[in-house]
Amino acid sequence: MTRFYYTWLFAIIISALFTSCQTNYTELPTYSVARQLQAVIEVPAGDNYSVQYNPATKAFESDKNDLIKFLPYPGNYGFIPSTEVGSDKRGLSILVLAARTETATVMEVIPVATLMLEKQTGDLYPVIIAVPSRPSEQLIKAHSYAALTIEYLVVKSMLEQWFVHHNSSAPLKFIGWKDEKFAEKEIQRWMKL
Question: What's the CATH number for 26-190?
Answer without folding.
Answer: 3.90.80.10
